[in-house]
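Task: complex structure prediction.
Instruction: return C-alpha cells for all chains below.
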Amino acid sequence: MSQTELPTENAAALVEGVDVPTPAGRGSNLIRRSLRLGRTRVGLVLVGILVLIALFGPYLAPHAPDAFVGRPFSSPGGGAALGTDYLGQDVLSRFLHGGLDILILAIVSTAIGLVVGLAIGLIAAYSRNWLDEVLMRTMDVIMAFPQIMLALVAVTLVGPKNWVTITAIALTTAPRVARVARGAAQPVVERDFIGATEAMGMSKARIITGELLPNILGPMMVEASLRLTYSIAVIAALAFVGLANDPNAANWGTMISENQGALATQPWGALLPILAIALLTMGTGLIGDGIARTAAGIDRERGDE
Amino acid sequence: MTTDQLPDQQGLTTGPDPAVTVRDLQISTTNGTPVVDGVSFEIAPGEVLGVVGESGSGKTTVGLSLLGHARRGLEITGGTILLGQEDIRAMDDAELRRLRGSLVSYVPQDPASSLNPALRIGTQLREVLEAHGSTDDERNAARIAEMMREVALDDDPAYLKRYPHQLSGGQQQRVGLAMAFANRPRLIVLDEPTTGLDVTTQATVLATVRELAQAHGVAALYVTHDLAVVAAVATRVAVMYAGRIVELGPADQLFEASGHPYTRRLVGAIPRLTGGRSLIGIPGHAPSPAKRPHGCAFAPRCRLRIDECEVALPEPVQISPDHSARCIKALEVVKVEQSGLGDPVDLPPSDTEAPVLSIENLVARYGEIEVLHSINMTLEHRECLAIVGESGSGKTTTARSIAGLHHDWSGSIRLGETELAQTARSRSTDVRRQIQYIFQNPYGSLNPRKTVGESIGQPLRVFGLASRREADKRAGEMLEQVSLSASYARRYPDQLSGGERQRVAIARALISSPSVLICDEVTSALDVSVQAAIVELLGTLQRELGLSMVFVTHNLPLVRSIAQKVAVLADGHIVEYGETSGILARPQQEYTRHLISDTPSLETATSEVQATAQPTDRPTEREPTG
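Output:
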C-alpha cells in the first residue's frame, strides 16, 4: 500500500454525483435489476421448469407411480417411454411424481429456518450485549454439527417422518442464516437513523422489523436461495439413504438409490432424478448469485442506470 | 473549442519550465457524456495549485487524471497532460506504474484507509522506496529517517515499528505525505488530505505540504472543497464548476477580486471569524454532467445572468496577466465590491429568566474511560449555544447525553424543571418530543428504505400525535418550511443531494414542535455553499419558532454566524464559556487562541501564504500520540 493506491469507488463512477438520482437496492428493485443478468434468467428458467414438473408432473404421468408396466430395468420402448426401474415401474411416471415432496419439504424447512435465523441474527445484532454473545455462541454450537449428520441422527432416532426432516433442516439452517443476518445488520445498527428512532423512543421490536430488516433484504435474498439449494440437496440425500417419509413412494432421491445399480444398462432411472436435482440446485444457486452480484454492483456497467 | 483559440495561453504560464502542463483536458463517461471539459492549467515546480469546487465539479477527476488514471466508467478522451516533456496519455500501463509513486504521487483523502493496517509504518515506507528500485537497506533506513523528520514525525526505530492504528489521524496523514514525497516526485496530487482532521492537525499538515513542495521544488495539485484551506496552502487557485475551470488566478486576487460570480458566491458563503455575518448560500445546485446547459453552466443560478450567457460557453476573459475567468462580464464583476458578504447577523437576545436546559456536573464515560469531567452549562430560552472543540474533546458525547443517546453518564440534565433520565427510552414521550437531535451525517441519518415523507412523519406517529394521513400532510408542510417542494415526500434519500437530505433531517426534527434542537456537526459533511444555506435555514427557523438550540461544531467561524453563547471543550473539560463575540475576540485560554489561529480562514490565509517564502515555524504539536 502506498500513495500510488488509487481510489476505486465501487459506486457508479459518477464523480461525486450531485443531483443524479441513483436508484439503490430497494428490495423489489434489486430483483428486477438482477434479472438483467444472464445468470439470473438462466437460473429462473431452470427453477421454473423443475417446479412446473414437480407441480403438474403427477397429472401428466402416463402411469401410476407404483404400477408395474414391464420387466425390471427394461430399456425405453413399449409402454415405458424411458424404460422401467428396478421393480418394473415406469421411470417417467415415477420421475413426474417424485419432485413435489422434495420441493415442498425443502421450501417449508428453509422458510422456517430463515425466519428463525433472521429473528436470532437481528436480535443479536441489535442488542450488542451479552444476549448477542449467548445467541451467537449457541448458533456456533449447532453449526458445529454438519447439516446432513444432524438430519440423519434425528431421522434415525425419531423415525423418517416429514416433520422430523423439516425440524432438523430448519434447525440447521437457522444458525447459518443468523450469522449472515447479524453480519449484514451490524453496520446498519451503527447508522444514525437507528439512533434517530431510538431517540424517538420507538419500541425495539419495531426498530428491528421496521428499520433494520428492510435494510438487509438484499443479502438475505441471496442467503435464502443458497439455503434452499442446500436444503434440496440434504432432503434428496436423506431419501437416497432410504430415510424418506414413505420409502416406497416416488421420490427423486429414492429413485437414484433404487436404480443406481443399472446405470450402465438402463441409466434413465437414476440419471433423470440426478439431472433434476442438479439443475434445480444450480438454478437456485444461479438466482442467488445473480442477486448477490447485482447488490454488490459487480457487473454494473456505467450508464446502466 | 480548441486550445489554440484560448486567449489565456500566456496568462497561464507561471514560469519558464512548468512541471505539469494540462491542455484542453476532456474526461468523459464511457457512454460519452463529458464530465470534465476544456481544462487547461500549468503548475511550476514548487508551486501549489489549489483546485476548488463543490461535489460533482470534477475536481477529483482532474486530480486523478494527472496520474493517468480515470475512475471506473470514466475515460480521458481528449487533451494533453505533460509531465515536464513526457506525455502521460501516451504511456502504457507499465510506464504508468513506473510513473506513479516516483514521478507523480498521490495523497488520498482518508489516511486510515490508504495505509495497510497489517504492516508497520516503517515497512510501508521502505516498500515505497523498494518499489522504485532502491534496495540498499542502509541507505533506505537513512532515507526513511529523513522522510520522517521532514514531516515532523519521530524518526526513531521504535516509532517506525508502530502500526497505523497506533497513530492519530494527523500522524497517519503525515506518514502518507512522507510516502508521497519519498521518491522526490515532480508532481504530487493531494485529494482533500485534511478533510476529517482537526483544525490544529490540519494546520500542521497544510504547513508541511507547503514547506515540502517548496523545499524540494515539487509541483502540487491540492484538491479541496474548502476555500479557506485552499487559501492557506495554495499560491494559485483554479475554481471548478460543472467540469470546467471557471476562474484561475493567484489566490489573493481570486478571493479579493473575483472575476466570476460563482467564485464570489463561494467566498460569500464562507463563515468569517471577524464579525458575525449571516451566510448566504447559493440557491439551486450544480447541473449533472448529462444536463449541463449549452451556455455558461452557472447561468441558471447566477444573479447577473443576461440572455447572452445562455447562448454560448463563455471563453476565459483575461482580468490580469495571470488571472482569467469564464464569464462574459468578468471585467465588470471584478470591479464590484465584494458584495457576497451577508449583513451582520442580529441574533435575538436570549431570555435569561428560566433556562430551558441546565446541565450540572455532567460526567460521561465510555466503559472505564471518563470522557466528560463535570461539565456545567445552561441553555436559555431562544438561545443558541455552540459547543466547540476538536475531535475527542467530548462535544458530541455531551450532545448525545442530552438526547439520551449516550447512556453512560451521571450528573444532572434538566429540561425546564424536569430531571432527565439517562436513556431516551426511559424518558417520557413528552420529553423525547421536546428534545430533537439532528445528526452529523445526512447520508446515515435517514433510512434508505423509507420515503422522505415517511421519515419526516415518523416522529408524529411514534409519539402518537397524528394518524398516518395527518402525518403525511404535516410532512408535506414541513418540507415547504425547509424550502423543499412537498413533492419530495415521495422520494427516497438516495435521490437527494447531501444538503437536501440535511433539510429533510431538519424537517423530521422540527415536525413534533420541539423546544430544544440539538445539531451535531450538521454541516460538516456538506459543501460550503450548502453549509451556508443550512445555517441560514436553521437561524431563520430558530427565530421564527422560538427554538433553543445546541450547536455542536468544530468550525469556529461558523459559530460567529449563529450562536450567542459558546462553550469551548478540550479533553472533556470546558475551558472557556460565555458570549460568542467576547470569546472569539478576546480568548482567555491558550487552547482557544490555538483553535482560532489554526482555523483556516480567508483573513489569516493571505498573510500566511506570503510568509512561506521563509520557512515558517510550525504550530506546536497538539495531537495525542498512541
